[in-house]
Protein 1
Amino acid sequence: MVDFRFDIKPLFPQPIIKVASSLLPHTFRGDRRQCLDATSKMSEIIDQLGQLSAVSQGLSKPVTTAQRLRMSDNQTIYLLADPEAGTNGLVTGLLKVGTKDLYLFDEKGQTRKMENSPSILDFYVHETRQRAGLGKRLFETMLKEEEWTPLKCSVDRPSEKLLAFLGKHYGLVRTIPQANNFVLYEGFFNDGATSNGQSRNGHESPLSQKNGLHITNSPNTQLFGATYLGDEANKRSSGGRRDSGSQQQSSLLQQITQISPNGRYGAPRPTCSMAEIIHAGSGNSGKGGGGSGAESSSGNDIAEIAAQLQHLQAGDHYSVHDLQPELEIEPEPQPDPEPEPEPEEVYTPPSPPPKSHTPTPPTVRSPERAESIIGDNRKPPAFQLSKQHTGMKNRSFGVGMAVMPSSKMEFNQQEREDFGVVKINRPLGNEITSPGHDNTDAMSTVSSGGGLTDQGYNDLKFYHNKLW
Ligand SMILES: CC(=O)SCCNC(=O)CCNC(=O)[C@H](O)C(C)(C)COP(=O)(O)OP(=O)(O)OC[C@H]1O[C@@H](n2cnc3c(N)ncnc32)[C@H](O)[C@@H]1OP(=O)(O)O
């Protein structure tokens, strides 16, 4: 039983009092000294009942403290006492309520923002007095004072006992699932007041449902944009009414807009070089998007790169010839799209070959970029180089492009893996058909200087760092 060292009768002229942020009973009348005394005693009562409630619910710290109540301007605590019991009277129950702005799901799963929604925040009747109707008495007093109805109350993380209490006394059983700790019951959103944006208990903010989009200020909407509810939702919301406005409505449906996310989700994203390659490639080839004509500058870069690579097709250079079909950057469509098994690029870390077998270094190497970024060969590139092109991570541009996975590519790892050594190889089982296309032994093992292998390819070992 909760008794105190002081007499509670002056604080409880009636069995149930309510206390707000002033920490004074609503019935309190007194001078300044009495006011300070009452505040101190009331703080002690609230803290002790709040602690008992927390223990009863198995919480690590109390939901209700005098300090919290003092700091809040929209919370009220109802205290139930038996002033005649014991020497100084007994405090037997506590009910804390308040209003909250909540994002809630309705029965259809749509997000709604409820402002000043009535909430049951803490409820406790001393163990020795439970199941004696005191809880109901306290709750009924609160409903009357606040002019709330049980159905319109959201309940903050209710215990099993409270769920049973609400079920027994108010028939509240069927809940509406929520993403937060609050529990609502079916009917929470029902009534004329809610549907036109106002309710006696709580206030639904003027969230719109325009053009079939459910637009709220909820985190979901801000992150992912408005939810398109479809025409069915519009039919529902219009109640089946079809008048001259329906044409206008259908035209509005066309204007589906998306709320731009803001905050860090709205921040410009770093360009994805792989996406640039893919989109620019399909756009230029005319195979992917139908050639909208709206090309980004990065797309132009890629097209330019493709053009330059084309010029390098001569000779035994493998990358241009092999990469073009993969990247779809050749502007002119192939007359014969027969899916012949082309020499594929297989990159394996090979074992070092004897130097004597090393073919003559090619005189022309694919990427001008390889020359433009290496050592003494540094010179202005023939095209606009972005960070994606020239950054250390992307330095081996040709290799990066070549290893884009495709159905035509497989990785031959039969040979020993030496870190940092790249071999351009054939898929397993493929025979060399033409010396001009033989790249089986086109491997680089030793940097001959300037970051190039003695064949002139980029040596990954040279460029390796931990961040690569
Ligand atoms: C948002 C929150 O505050 S959640 C936390 C709620 N508080 C707690 O769980 C603390 C411990 N419990 C209590 O303090 C009380 O049981 C209260 C406040 C929930 C209800 O107060 P009571 O004075 O017992 O309520 P009252 O006597 O008016 O109603 C009794 C009904 O409450 C429910 N109830 C009360 N105690 C229990 C219990 N131990 N087990 C199951 N149901 C219970 C039952 O429906 C009971 O009806 P029944 O006896 O016919 O089964």
Note: The chain has two domains: 16-188, 292-463.
Protein 2
Amino acid sequence: MAEHLSQSELDYPFKLLEYFNGFRVSKMIFSACELGVFDLLLKSQDALSAQHVAQELGTSVDGMERLLDALVGIEILEVERADGTALYSSTDVANLYLAKGSAKSLHDMIIYRSQTVYPLWNNLADAIREGRNQYEKTFGLPSAHFFQAIYRSEEEMLKFMGIVSCHWVLDGHDVVTAFDLSRFQKVVDLGGCTGALANEMARAYPASSVTVFDLPEVVEAAQKHFKQEDSGVTFQSGKPEY
Ligand SMILES: C[S@@+](CC[C@H](N)C(=O)[O-])C[C@H]1O[C@@H](n2cnc3c(N)ncnc32)[C@H](O)[C@@H]1O
């Protein structure tokens, strides 16, 4: 029988403390991404001192040293010592997922979580009390129309589209092949956004015709910024009210 959390935690609340501190771990990674730590370490051939990183990224040396040590503590960075100086380098995982530009980069997802999702979750208790999203309180935006709030500017819309694509880079192939969908000759991804999932679908089932349907401004941006040549996916736009 599965052991309940409360029973295993009675002597010492390891898990609970880990849960309480989860936001600190998230914020360390978010901040390092925003400051460009992972991009700099990826670009550099050599391991770098905190002073070097701080100078390149325009931060305090003390703050950067603390951040780098904390990232070593959670095994995202590595450290070695040379003549008494700590030199930091990225792990393969950080290079692949946290720096910009790799095929599997989750950078856009991290920035969106840091700048949009995290502030919204800061008002989680109010969301539960009131039974509605917290765009108004968090960002001063009318929240009745969810996507009007999310797409409040082109920049915000592109950020949202970036995070949607990131998800499917990780899980898209597994999702579309979890069941054999080859007997469906026509597939429409309603609200298919950038077409990231549709691309996976088209790759897995080359005999099917795959169409993405989304709002006109999203389809335009998808084709301009996220288009995958040769994917065979077609786009159609419209704005059904519901
Ligand atoms: C949460 S996103 C999901 C995107 C994608 N299906 C995925 O799972 O990655 C919802 C999508 O629905 C689209 N959408 C929202 N309202 C819509 C409407 N009235 N008509 C068409 N698409 C809409 C949004 O632009 C967005 O791309």
Note: The radius of gyration is 22 Å.
